[in-house]
Amino acid sequence: MSISGNQMELREEDIRKHYAAAGAMLEGFDHTPRIAKPAVEGKAPERSVGIGTRRRFRSTTPGLVTRSTARPDGVHLIARIEAADDDDPLTSPLQATLQHALRRALAISLAMGEAYTDVSGLADLKRANLAGSLDAARKGEFTELLAAEALIAAHVFANAAAYLLAPHGSEAQAEVGEAEELLTDNAPLALHGALWELDQKLAQHAPDDAHLIAATAGYAEQLMEKAALRARSAPRLEGFTAADWRVEADDLTISGFEPAAKAKSTTLTMAFKKPHEVVGNHIAKYQALRLSKMLMAYDFDRRLNPFAEMGGFIFTFMGDGKPGTGKTTLIQMMAGLIHDYCQNAGYAFRYQNFGIDNIDSYQGKSGQNAKSFIQNVLDPGVIGFGTIDDIDQIAGKRGDRQSSAGQQEVTAVFMEAFAGANTVVRGNCTFGMFSNYPENVDDALRQRAGARFLVDGPQTREDYIDILTLLMGKNHEIPLGDHNLYGAQEIKQAVARSFEAHNRPQEPGLAEVFGRVQDQIGELDSLAKLGTYLKAIQQADERFTGRAIKNITDAVKVRAMDFELPDDWMENPELFLFKDYDTKSAMIGELRVPITIDMVVQEINRYADSEFRYADKSDEVAIDNMVRDFGRQEEAKRRYLEGQG
């Protein structure tokens, strides 16, 4: 075992020495389930008439010769895998791949367990227990360490199996259900329980080779989730979670109870847009440009972004505006910028959109789809960009009877992922939620959007000339006329004008609060006066809570980072991207600007304007619906009375 920084290596020889034990487990063992109930007979079907699935053991002990050693709950995974295709007596390439992946995953799990016993002191306690000399005062510690080793073994096995099978997946899917047989008495029993349950899942959900991979990967994900959930409250895990464990031959890094994923880029087929092709939307465009470069400051060795540590990183944002104002164009611009930056630096970039087609009628599937989306984008081995377009149609409001169960599941997953107790912002990814009707998004989920991008489209005469020229293309000879093409889209000037516009609120309801507070206490030039203004906003809108204040202060910190990383730093990675973490932090720190009172007032007004805009729209929609319902009732009553005539 070698150590490098905060990373420890599982040596190849330490893994391979467990191949024999891993192969024996796949060949066959007996297991009596404790928690899960058997759904199928444990014995795998014979592949051909007269050919058994396993050589039967015949005891040579006197008196036991005639006693059968085969049990009905025997687990024979190799036979189960090979039985997936009854028409072919030979093992298929995909079946062989699965067998090798499972053996490798088991060997990695056993090696990890062995390493844990060494660093935690469990090895000494095992020897003492075997010799009968274990101190009674340490039996509690011994039990806790065995349970910790069992959780580690189960999670590492599932983690490695899912990782190794990822390149062999297909469109085939398998709904394997929850992992139940997670036993924590000791590591061997934990692995036996996992393999027994995997055997059951394959018998139920793997009629062919493609579903073999899908069912195994699906069960591995469920087992990882169950083990990670148990690990939250389990003691004695520091020896495993304190460092990353590296398996060099597989390019696998085991980071505690986090799922590993291959750092692969997604293949993007969208039409990228250049910044000048996004007309209007000045603040949204400016923040998207800056966020694209912020993501590139992520340090893959430290697994942290200096912007996330210093403040000013946008983890989630909400883009709202009327239909046709440019939300899709903004997504195409931002994805294109990050894609180009990553290609230049040699980083893996993963873009994924969560759309309405991910809402499934199968109970629990929508939540699983949402979790998979979140995990793919959060993968610390890539630069990630996740978008949720038309989130008002995808995530249902809690308590809304018109929202499907799938939409409610998605809302719960997004709320936990974006600002839950276990949310860790590394700074390698960002999530954008977009909607034409943000007032229809659940209030708590909407407030988890740390930044607000008002996508208002072209506004000025110059904007409309620019967008007309852009969309007309070049297949004409119509003169441009007296106009500086795209001059109005100069980011710095346009953004300065846009921010200045928020020195006073835009929404009538907020403007009334702002004016009343100013009349009472004068100019907002101190923290006490700003706090008084915030309290007045809360009195006008009870949904303006502590989370709103956090989002405002985060936005102010973003303004303190009110600079663009130089283009040279993106074009020549040696200048910045390939520097070590501390150097990058120092370079960013030199560019930071001080926070001013104007910044704070503008950000309060920007955020509160958006909340008042959403609340006013939401109330108006609710009132319109009630008026429509009352009208229907009156018309129904009139027709009923006419019919009674």
UniProtKB/TrEMBL annotation:
Boundaries of every ATPase AAA-type core domain copy: 321-454
Against InterPro entries, the record matches this protein to: ATPase_AAA_core, P-loop_NTPase
The record's annotation in Pfam families points to: AAA
Which GO-annotated molecular functions does the record name? Answer: ATP binding; ATP hydrolysis activity
Which residue ranges traverse the bilayer? none
Which Gene3D superfamilies does the record cross-reference, listed alphabetically? P-loop containing nucleotide triphosphate hydrolases
Q: Which domain of life is it from?
A: Bacteria
Name this protein carries in UniProt:
ATPase-like protein
User: Which species does the entry assign this protein to?
Assistant: Phaeobacter porticola
